[in-house]
Amino acid sequence: MPSHRFRTLAGAVLATVLATATAAAAEPIKLNLGYGITSDFLPAFVAKDDGFFAAHGLDVNMIVVTSSSLAPPALIGRSLDISQMTPPNLLLAYEGGLDLVSVAGIGRLTAKNPRTSLITRVGVTVTKPEDLRGKTIAVPGINSALDLMLRKWLLDAKVPLDQVTIVETPFQQMGDRLKSGQLDAAFQFEPLLSRILASGTAVKSVDIMSVENPDALGAFWGATRDWAKANKPAVDAFRAALAAAIDFMTQHPGDAHKIEAKYLGYATPTLPDAALKVTPGDFVFWADACREVGLLHRPVDAANLILP
What we know:
The structure is a single chain. This protein is of the alpha/beta class. The protein folds into two domains: about 10-15 and about 20-110 and about 215-305, 3-Layer(aba) Sandwich (D-Maltodextrin-Binding Protein, domain 2), CATH 3.40.190.10; about 115-210, Periplasmic binding protein-like II (D-Maltodextrin-Binding Protein, domain 2, 3-Layer(aba) Sandwich). It is built from 13 helices and eleven strands. The strands form two sheets. A six-stranded mixed β-sheet has the order 2-1-3-10-4-11, with helices on both faces. Strands 7-6-8-5-9 form a five-stranded mixed β-sheet, with helices on both faces. Helix 6 (about 145-155) links the parallel strand 6 (about 135-140) and strand 7 (about 165-170). The longest helix has 25 residues, at about 1-25. It is globular. It starts with a helix and ends in a 16-residue tail after the last helix.
């Protein structure tokens, strides 16, 4: 009889343990995700709104990161688990001794589907780097990807950087500052690029990114190496959810544009070139550019910047 009671008790305990384990396994993984306010982040918007994150066991808290330069300290401080970053952000963080890695790509900047352009206020014509001498040009952030490409474009044409004035200006303010004459030119990104051009506030000038690299890694999802290695199941689920969202965008572009308009207030003429793959060569290009403008001095193992 005691043996029977023991087996009954043991069975009850086992059932409780199994039920608890099942519930724990079903509990979604919470993730703080930092995103930017451009159309390149559409896969994340779709994954959130159409349930792809949830379907892969993720409870994602979407947090706006207005400048990619804010991502490294937010990741180090653990206020974000994964965040939008640009290659210069990661390389400069590496230069400063921070250990960050790419966990997935966001989008490509391609000549066939340009997402950026230098634009100028009405009355100012720029067709070559030399035309910017004496001009004031806005970039979304000093040492950002667009700032780096602008400076590289100027230096490649032997235009000294002290002959132009480069100022940091939020994307949302560029149109008004061009209209008021405070700026001569601005390096703008979709979706605001199309909106400003449609308003007649500015005219399209030069697609500098395509000139420098017709297929460049524009942005990626980054994390600290320690967090990414310790939370590999979350990273794998994140990648799978984004892959499903990209497939959805390809099959349902109209629905994707509606989600884009919900998050950004405007749908771009074409969908971004979303791509999850990141290669060492992507970082080699940006590392070379950083060295050219004097921002990077340490040797870089590009493959080590990518989480397998």
